[in-house]
Amino acid sequence: MDTKDKTDIRALSKEAILAFFTEKGEPAFRANQVYQWLWQKGVHDFESMTNLSKSLRDLLQEHFVINHINIDRQQRSTDGTLKNAIKLHDGYVVESVLIPTKTRSTACVSSQVGCSLDCTFCATAALKRMRNLNADEIYDQVVAIDQQSRLYFKRPLTNIVFMGMGEPLMNYNQVLLAIDKITHPEGLAMSPRRITLSTSGIPKMIQKLADDGVKFELAVSLHSARQEVREQIMPFAKQFPLEDLKAALLHWYATTKKRITFEYIVFKGVNDTDEDIEALVRFCTNIPSKVNIIEYNTIDDATLSQAAPDRVEAYIAALNRFKISVTYRRSRGKDIDAACGQLANKIDL
Question: Which of 95, 167, 217, 263 is catalytic?
Fold first, then answer.
């Protein structure tokens, strides 16, 4: 059978793998063995499944394929950040990032090839969406970064953020399936509390997350609490008014009891006025939340630039005055275009 005609075995549930072995007259425990190789040990070929007989490995090879990722290129920042250009089985490329600190190793993973949205500050948005990633392609990014963390920093991966290429909530099913494989005891068994999904803010999908009982953390790329300004920064926001977003986030909190993190870039001449600050304070006062002010990272767009330091400080002071938790995060990996908003900035897809 030609490889392109074979089923990717990682697209099958454990029950489907069990049904395959049952049909072939093999004992049920074979399905557990294969599932363990695929999702706990992350192997990319059947020959590595050494507790299976040669005939069984040949049988799997005859019927299935494992469409795994490959790290095509790797760049290392002066601050230790590592960026991977990941080649997918069909030739598309996405990027993932390992962000090390003294105590943590964080994987920033992608969920789409390109992006469905049009945020003006993000390099990925210029690519448009070419396709969604499958759950196994997201999972593979995590496994690869865990291996890199162990190799370069002598520790396992500690955290995962869905802040790479793409809008995770526009690939809802595959992203949640990937998180299940990453957190399940039969998978990588990582705590969901160490995973943060970052979204540009799609109200109905945020409500669905809450209703589906997810256990991970939620971050929203906000950047303005004034509708007209947010539409300027993120044109797609015309479809998702702030009032709808607010209602969805209140539903999230009421259902999960988890605070939301608002990601916020202060742009010069765009959202750096006192009116912008007051609007953010009002928005956060109504929603249990914390604010993460992010440094703007250039994407060769002359229309946007970082606000003056005193305007960022004005935001921080106002939020502190109203006892709203706020942090200011300086970006890492800027010298290799691995910082927030820069992924796919200079990559040839």
Answer: 95
Multiple choice CATH, 70-336, 3.10.180.10, 3.40.190.10, 3.50.7.10, 3.20.20.70: 3.20.20.70
The β-bridge partners of 197 are 162, 218
Decide: helix, strand or coil at residue 313.
helix
Beta strand 93-100 with 289-294 is unpaired
CB 221 within 8 Å of CB 119 = yes
The domain over range 3-65 is classified in CATH as 3.40.50.1100: no
Q: What is the pLDDT of residue 78?
A: 87
Confidence of residue 347 (pLDDT cuts 50, 70, 90): very low
In the predicted structure, residue 141 carries a pLDDT above the cut 90: yes
Task: Reply yes or no on whether 122 is catalytic.
Answer: no
Q: Would 3-65 and 70-336 be classified into the same CATH topology?
A: no
Instruction: Give me the count of residues in the chain.
Output: 349
* Active-site annotation holds for 95: yes
88-114 pLDDT, tens digit each: 999 999 999 999 999 999 999 999 998
Query: Mean of the pLDDT values across residues 302-310?
Result: 86
Indicate the domain borders of the chain. Answer: 3-65, 70-336
Of the ranges 2-11, 175-184, 193-202, which one carries the lowest mean pLDDT score?
2-11
Catalytic option among 119, 122, 284, 340: 340
Element (H, E) at 87: strand 82-87
Q: CB burial class (10 A; 0-12, 13-18, 19+) of residue 200? A: buried
